[in-house]
Design brief:
Helices cover 2% and strands 38% of the residues. The protein contains 1 helix and 18 strands. The strands form 4 sheets. The chain has a 6-stranded mixed β-sheet, with no helix packed on it. By secondary structure, it is mainly β. It is elongated and about 75 Å long.
């Protein structure tokens, strides 16, 4: 006599229409994930976490999934509360950041004072000691890119100024004040103006 274990299977898009019994398993064939039933949760509960490493957020995440943003070197968790669901960055407090820091495989240089950026820079701006200015290159070429991260959660207390250095930023003839903690900026020159992504 042989024993057989049967598992419901199908596409992720159809999973939410099934409420599996307690202990019953569901397998999604398109994203290769397993869910277990509790008898009341539509679609079941994810078994284990799912980790994605990419520079873009996964399209159909489940609560508890992890996403390593390879562009900015941040770990995010997919979170759901009563009225919303979104990716939330996981952050630690009380630690130190070594120099050079790395994120997404790129070496970031910690900058703590006024600095003139060059195309291809990866800057971990530390305004802990006070606000300062990063000046964009004077003669940019289309495609020039500069990456800046508030790696020390200080931009709201000690702002970072992006000086345009003769070019425009987002089509404007004024410098930009960055005053949002944990800001991650990818600044690209499109041949006409600096664009902030």
């Amino acid at each position: 006599m042989s024993n057989e274990l049967r598992i419901k299977r199908g596409l992720e898009a159809n999973r939410s229409g099934i409420t599996p019994a307690a202990g019953e398993l569901i397998y999604t064939t398109d994203n290769k994930r397993v869910f277990i039933g509790d008898g009341s949760t539509a679609g079941g509960i994810p078994v284990g976490g799912f980790v994605t490493i990419s520079d873009t957020a996964p399209v159909s995440p489940s609560v508890g999934d992890l996403w390593w943003d390879s562009e900015y070197g941040t770990l995010n968790i997919f979170y759901q509360d009563v009225d919303s669901s979104q990716w939330v960055e996981i952050s630690a407090t009380g630690g130190t950041i070594e120099t050079p820091a790395t994120a997404g495989g790129e070496a970031y240089t910690v900058i703590t004072t006024t600095y003139t950026a060059v195309a291809g820079d990866y800057i971990l701006a530390n305004t802990t000691g006070g606000a300062f200015t990063i000046t964009l290159p004077a003669s940019p070429t289309a495609g020039d890119t500069i990456n800046i991260i508030d790696g020390f959660t200080q931009f709201s207390a000690n702002n970072l100024t992006l000086a345009r250095n003769g070019s425009t930023i987002e089509g404007l003839s004024s410098d930009i004040i960055v005053d949002v903690n944990d800001a991650k900026l990818k600044i690209i020159y499109n041949g006409t103006t600096w664009r902030i992504m």
